Amino acid sequence: MKRCLFLILFIVLILNCGETPDTLVAPKFDKGAPGTALSSTVVHNFEDTYNPNLLDGYTGCGAGNGDAVTNDLTYLQFNSGVRSLKVIITHDKIKEGYIWMAFNFGPEIEKDAQGNNAPQKRDVSGYKYISFFINIVPDRVKFYVEMGDISLPTGQSVKVPVTVIRKFERWQEVRILLEDFKGLDLERVNKLIFSMNSDIETQSRVDFYLDDIIFKN
Ligand SMILES: [Ca+2]
Questions:
Q1: Distance 100 CA to ligand 1 centre (A)
Q2: pLDDT of residue 23
Q3: Which of 29, 28, 42, 68 is nearest to 206 (CA)?
Q4: 11 found inside a domain
Q5: 12, 68, 184, 215: which one has the fewest Cβ atoms less than 10 Å from its Cβ?
Q6: What is the pLDDT, as a whole number, of residue 142?
Q7: Helix/strand/coil (H, E, C) string of 70-83?
Q8: How far is the CA of 74 from the centre of ligand 1 (A)?
Q9: What pLDDT is stored for residue 52 in this prediction?
Q10: How far does residue 204's CA lie from ligand 1's centre (Å)?
C-alpha cells in the first residue's frame, strides 16, 4: 500500500513538472527562433545604454518653437535595475510647440525616401498592452503615446492621450490597450513616441522619470 502511494505521488510530481507556466502562453513575435515566443518585449529599461534601445533602434528627442526637452540616464530613481531616464521639459507658454521622445524599432539598416535610417517593423499584435512606469515631479501631466507602422508616411502616427495624476511619491504603471491605437497595423509597428503639445500642458516645466517600456499581456 505504501509503495502504491509513493508511486501515485511520483506520477503527480512528474505531471506537475510538465505543466507549462502561464507566462509562456506566447504572442506572435517576429524576432527570435521559432518556438521561442516571448511573454513580453522590452523597448527600453534604461540600464546599460541610452542608444540603441533594446529593440536595436535609435532613441531620440526634440522640441521646437521655444520648447525644450533633455533626457539622461540617472541613478536617482529607478523602477527596475539601478537606473531610469530623467526627462526635463520646458514650455514656451506663448508659442505652441510639439515635444517628442521617440523609440524607433531596429535594426535601422534600410533608408527611407529622405535617406534617413528607417525603423523596422515589429509584430506586436499578440500583445494586449504597451506598458511603462513613470514617476513625476508635478502632480499632473498630460501627454500622448503615439505609435507608427511602416505603411504610414514619415512623421505620421496614431495617438492616444494619457493623463498621469500621481504626485512624485512612487512609480506608477501606465498601461494602454493596443486596441486603443485605432487604425494602427499592429503587425508592422515601427516606432513608439511620447509627445506633448504646449497647449495641453499648463506647467511651464515638467520633470519626470521613465522606466520599463514594455509590450505585454
Ligand atoms: Ca531601469
A1: 20
A2: 32
A3: 68
A4: no
A5: 12
A6: 84
A7: EEEEECCCCCCCCC
A8: 9
A9: 92
A10: 27
Position 141 scores a pLDDT of: 80
Is residue 14 domain-resident? no
CA of 54 to the centre of ligand 1 (A): 12
Measure the CA dihedral 84/120/100/161, to 10°: -90
Say whether 189 sits in a helix, a strand or coil. strand
Domain with 190 in it: 27-216
How many Å lie between the centroid of ligand 1 and the Cα of residue 193? 18
- Cα–ligand 1 centroid distance for 48 (angstroms): 9
Beta bridge partners of 41: 215
> Domain tally for the chain?
1
Say how many Å lie between the CA of residue 82 and the centre of ligand 1: 6
Q: Chunk the chain into consecutive blocks of 10 residues (it has 217) and report each block's average pLDDT, rounded to whole numbers.
A: 54 42 33 52 93 92 89 92 93 84 87 77 94 83 92 90 76 92 96 85 80 94
pLDDT of residue 165: 73
Q: How far is the CA of 156 from the centre of ligand 1 (A)?
A: 29
Look at residue 16 and tell me if it is in a domain: no
Q: 164 CA to middle of ligand 1, Å?
A: 20
Q: What is the CATH number of the domain that holds 195?
A: 2.60.120.260
Confidence at residue 215, expressed as pLDDT on a 0 to 100 scale: 95
Q: How many CB atoms lie within 10 A of CB 12?
A: 10
Tell me whether residue 63 is in a domain.
Answer: yes
CA of 44 to the centre of ligand 1 (A): 8
At residue 54, the pLDDT reads: 93
